Amino acid sequence: MIDWLACLLVRVIGGGCCLLPSAAAVWIGERMGALAYWLQPKRTRIGLRNLRAAFDGRMAPAELSGVIKDCYRQLGAGLIELLRLPVIDRAYIDRYVTPEGRHHFDQAISSGKPVILLTGHFGNWEMSSIAAALNGYPIMALARAQDKLPRLYRLLISYRESKGCTIVHKGGAMKRLLQALERRQLVGIVGDQASRQGIAVEFFGRPALFATGPFSLAYSKGALLLPVFMHRVRGPHHRLVIEPPIELTRREPEAAEVRRGIEQFAGALARHILEAPSQWLWMHKRWKHTQARRLLVLSDGKAGHVKQSLAVARSLQRHRPDTAVDVIEIRYRHPLARAFALAWSWWMPRGLGATACLRLALTRASGQALLTRYADLIISCGASTAPANVLWAGANDAKSVAIMNPAPLPPSRFDLVAAPRHDRLPRRANVLRTAGALVEPLENGRAGEARGRLQAHPRRRADLAQLAGRPVVAVFIGGDTPDYAMDAAFIDALTAQLRAACEALDGWCLVTTSRRTPPGAAQRLSDALEDDPRCAMLLLAHRDPLDGTMEGMLSCATVAVVTGESISMVSEACASGHPVVVTEPPARRSAATKQARFMRELAAEGYIRLAPVAALAHAIEQAQRDPAPARRLDSLATVRDSVAKLL
User: Fold this and answer.
1) How many CB atoms lie within 10 A of CB 134?
2) What is d(CA 561, CA 513) in angstroms, rounded to the nearest whole number?
3) Beta strands 293-299 and 186-190: pairing type?
4) What was the pLDDT predicted at 591?
5) Do 546 and 304 form a contact (C-beta atoms < 8 A)?
6) Counting Cβ atoms within 10 Å, is residue 400 exposed (0-12), middle (13-18) or buried (19+)?
7) Is 332 helix (H, G, I), strand (E, B) or coil?
8) What pLDDT shows up at residue 218?
9) What pLDDT, in 10s, does the model give residues 599-641?
10) Are 414 and 401 in contact, with CB atoms under 8 Å apart?
11) In this predicted structure, what is the pLDDT of residue 193?
12) Torsion sign, CA atoms 56, 57, 62, 63
């Protein structure tokens, strides 16, 4: 009954449109298409994702939406033109279709070779075969059968065949296509979509599958492939562009020639899309089966958080070299804007209103950077970036990964949450508990690069190459937190113990502070160590550049010393493979903190040695002289494998 009613509706609408002037009928079709933009939200999101992927960062959000709206208008106009086929004749084609490159068509026909017209889902692609047929070149067109409404589909096919086209369907069409080529009848194929059996070639910066059928057919029959593209100029007016033929020779194996032909066609299609982006069918999952993936890391401006996110992304990139990684900093207009984004990401269905919410909540620069980018997977670390992660993952139909506890957002809003055990998140299928912060291992290449950067640092007071084979203590000093106070007495005791250990070991020390280190503590460090002959380097965060400092110092060290209020610094030291000694600054309160729980767990598992500051020198000497290899902390591999499964 639905099929019958659909046929009746099409006949009524088509009959009415046939009575209207061409421009008026096409105008109605465009209005219908504009309505479909809102009635097909899923397809609209697919189109926007594809556009963001193809024009990565080169189109503003308003431009992206405008292209998809125009694309729907083109489809609506094309549908009306299909329904008006009963009144379209040779005079209509002569009036409304202007050919360009007609000599390519004439030369192909006069060559005596079989000819395959190859087009894409561009403009009103159906009109190209109609134009050829009405100009005296009957065409056999390959189509995919539609079985949901068979009566309606047969009606629309009859419209096309009444103009001189013969429609054959995928599945049993090959024999008829071969026969048509043998008798020099034109064959028309839409060649810009493929199943998993196609060949992947570069298309807008990513591998995309293209069907091999038209090219294998041309190779086997010695046929010319003639790319044609129908541009809508305005209203019912079109421009039919005929490209130079693609000829596959027998001098090379079929596989090589087919790939060359596909690459030429993909390049031609991309040129036409760049000329008129709104005329291609973006609402199809064109890159569904591509192996190339894009990861987006959201930054809150905190180096430790970004480092953890990048550790996951780069680890995945090393195992999947076709993965691209980008970093975007998230900045909110106001604390209330962040609260608005948080509430929306918590309560609203996935993806609903995400673009509008982010446009309102983020600063103009941050929103522009984020809303123009595509990602298959989004990684964030820290609470402030979590709402943007959830919202933009929903808008892109991407996977969302949170590093550390994303509270106040619940873990259920993410595809994967990788959080340290001491955060005590509830056990869920999407929650992965790690031993500590996520850190890239100092592999040989990274270690050498880090040492090179440190060697070139203007604050270096000794040739680091001379430290090789000598005991070297790398010291990482954090700062004040709500739970710990880095007071003067602690700094004085630490420097005294460090100097004693270096004297006892006849070694050197490399010392650095963090951005949280109080100015008074940094000054006391400077007073104690600036002129110490055993201090090969002292870098203060408020004074010196620190890019890559921790990696460089760890690559030179034989023992690492870390103040225990920083989970990320302790984790990075433990990932180096060197013995690690942790000393706690004075606590502000007696209750056990998550940092304290974290350190107790690592000490129990043999990753670190805990030492009060008064016994630090003895602990450093023991760690240096212990013949047993240090246990390396590595939670990254487990997280990387879990993230890879999401892709």
Assistant:
1) 20
2) 12
3) unpaired
4) 62
5) no
6) buried
7) strand
8) 93
9) 888 999 999 999 999 999 999 999 999 988 888 888 888 899 9
10) yes
11) 80
12) negative
The span from the CA of 93 to the CA of 135, in Å, is 8
Question: Which residues of the chain have a pLDDT value below 50?
Answer: none
CATH fold label, 444-625 = Rossmann fold (3.40.50)
Q: For residue 579, which amino acid is it? A: P
Between the CA atoms of 308, 310, 316 and 322, what dihedral angle is there, to the nearest 10 degrees?
A: 170
CA distance 243 to 272: 11
The pLDDT of residue 365 is: 94
Residue 614 is given by DSSP the state: G
Give residue 217's pLDDT.
Answer: 92
Helix (H, G, I), strand (E, B) or coil at 592: coil
pLDDT value for 420 = 87
The residue behind tokens 């008074």 is 520
Record the pTM: 0.83
Contact between residue 601 and residue 574 where contact means Cβ atoms under 8 Å apart: no
The residue count for the chain: 647
Q: Count other Cβ atoms within 10 Å, centred on residue 474.
A: 27
Q: Are strands 246-247 and 224-234 parallel, antiparallel or unpaired?
A: antiparallel
Measured in degrees and rounded to the nearest 5, phi and psi for residue 528 equal -85, -35
Q: Which amino acid makes up residue 168? A: V
Q: What is the mean pLDDT of the chain?
A: 90
| CB environment 254-271: b (16+ within 10 A), e (fewer) | eeebbbbbbbbbbebbbe
> Which two tokens mark 472?
């070297």
Query: 116 pairs with which residues across the strands?
Result: 187, 225
Measured between alpha carbons, how far is 174 from 197 in angstroms, rounded to an integer? 16
Q: What is the pLDDT of residue 647?
A: 84
Spatial neighbors of 417 by CB under 8 A, at least 6 apart, are: 401, 402, 405, 406, 411, 425, 428, 430, 431, 432
| Cβ-contact 381, 419 below 8 angstroms | no
| Percent helix, percent strand, percent coil in the chain, to nearest 5 | 50, 20, 35
H/E stretch holding 513: strand 508-513
Rounded CA-CA distance 633/602 in Å is 9
* CATH architecture of the domain formed by 293-434: 3-Layer(aba) Sandwich (3.40)
Q: From the CA atom positions of the chain, what is the Rg in Å? A: 33
Please list the alpha-helical segments (H only) found in 276-361: 303-319, 335-347, 354-361
Tokens of 2: 């639905």
